[in-house]
């Protein structure tokens, strides 16, 4: 069973920073697996924010590129999303996702495993 637990969300003023974490457990975690972050704001479709593949290559959505950084810690089995210069339009529920045994093609992939989400609210 794949368990993903996000944390680190909260409320912050525009221009501030947050770091989201996603702890993976319950399965044969591999740092080579595709992992990613999505977000969904009320009334909007879910969008992928960032992804990281087997080689550590990263991909970002246009709206967050240059502000957000995805990374992973193999030993801690944890995925991170460092979010800087936050904007009110970044307000959303943020979800961690993974696809065990998939190493590449992590961007815009139809992931099967999701965390419960962590709320990020950015005020102007």
Relevant terms:
mainly beta; 124 residues; 4-stranded antiparallel beta sheet
Please provide a brief summary of the model.
By secondary structure, the protein is an all-beta fold. It has no helices and eleven strands.
Tell me the number of helical segments per DSSP (H or I, 4 or more residues long).
0
Structural class: mainly beta
Q: What do the pLDDT scores average to?
A: 93
Q: What radius of gyration results from the CA coordinates?
A: 13 Å
Name the helix and strand elements from N-terminus to C-terminus, one letter apiece: EEEEEEEEEEE
**DSSP, total strands:** 11
Helix content: under 10%
The largest β sheet comes out as: 7 strands, mixed
Morphology = globular
- Beta content: over 45%
State the end-to-end distance.
40 Å
Low-confidence stretches: none
Write the layout of secondary structure elements.
Elements: E1 3-7, E2 10-13, E3 18-25, E4 34-40, E5 47-52, E6 58-60, E7 68-73, E8 78-83, E9 92-99, E10 113-114, E11 118-123
Parallel strand pairs: 2-11
Antiparallel strand pairs: 1-3, 3-8, 4-5, 4-9, 5-6, 7-8, 9-10, 9-11
């Amino acid at each position: 069973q794949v368990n993903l637990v996000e944390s680190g969300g909260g409320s912050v003023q525009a221009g501030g920073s947050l770091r989201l974490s996603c702890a993976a457990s319950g399965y044969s975690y591999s740092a080579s697996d595709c992992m990613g972050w999505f977000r969904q704001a009320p009334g909007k479709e879910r969008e992928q924010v960032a992804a990281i593949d087997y080689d550590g290559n990263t991909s970002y959505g246009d709206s967050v590129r240059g502000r957000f950084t995805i990374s992973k810690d193999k030993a801690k089995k944890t995925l991170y999303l460092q979010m800087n210069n936050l904007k009110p339009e970044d307000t959303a529920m943020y979800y961690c996702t993974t696809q065990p045994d998939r190493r590449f093609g992590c961007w815009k992939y139809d992931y099967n495993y999701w965390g419960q989400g962590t709320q990020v609210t950015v005020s102007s």
